[in-house]
Amino acid sequence: MKLLVHICCAPCFAAPYYYLKKKFDIHGFWFNPNIHPYLEYKNRMEEVEKFAKNEKFPIIFKDEYKLKDFLRKASFRENNRCQFCYYDRLKYAAIIAKKGNFDFFTTSLLYSKFQNHELVREIGESLAKEYKIKFYYEDFREYWKEGIQISKEKKMYRQQYCGCIFSEEDRYKPKGS
Predict the structure, then answer these.
(1) Are 147 and 153 in contact (CB under 8 A)?
(2) Using one digit for the tens of pLDDT, what is the confidence trace for 36-52?
């Protein structure tokens, strides 16, 4: 069975990849217009490209740096920014999966303990109905430590925040300020 996996970054995909490749014919999909700054975006994309090449799985790149579009959607709605971000990325994954005759689509966001799994699942399942393609949900957080170990062993670029300018502030802003 063919599975299209939206990949947010190589470290978040590493452990799920080794698990999923036992069950699926995996194809990666890169589309992350929220990542800021631009050099961070390029670093993450290049690391995903390197991982795909080393592991020999096909990947589709929708290399569109659309930070302004993301900011327009998130401005004055910062508390709901993740909803817009999940929706955009999963929508394109569903479209690509449908056009490519995949059996399922999913996302490496389901690996992160910092993401809202219920919201990712809800959006994925809603888009699955809309585009008539199955969303594969699995909670990959149980592989958290394994993923960190793999990414360190492979000397992957490991970022310290989700990707958007708001999460960067959340990560680095002193507590209580």
Answers:
(1) no
(2) 889 989 999 999 999 99
Contacts of 126 (CB under 8 A, 6+ apart): none
Question: What is the per-residue pLDDT across 1-38, written as a single tens digit (0 to 9) for each?
Answer: 999 999 999 999 999 999 999 999 999 999 998 888 89
* Alpha-carbon gap, residue 128 to 36, rounded angstroms: 28
Strand 25-30 and strand 2-6: the pairing is parallel
User: Structure tokens of 162?
Assistant: 């989700």
User: What is the C-alpha separation between 151 and 133, in angstroms, rounded?
Assistant: 31
Structure tokens at 33: 């217009």
Q: How far apart are CA 80 and CA 154, in angstroms?
A: 34
Q: What are the residue ranges spanned by the domains of the chain?
A: 2-172
Residue 85: strand, helix, or coil: helix
Number of C-alpha atoms within 13 angstroms, CB side, residue 113?
7
What is the rounded distance in angstroms from the CA atom of residue 171 to the CA atom of residue 8?
17
Q: Say if residues 35 and 167 touch (Cβ distance below 8 Å).
A: no
- 2-172 has which CATH code? 3.40.50.620
pTM of the predicted structure, to 2 decimals: 0.91
Cα separation, 134 vs 128, whole angstroms: 5
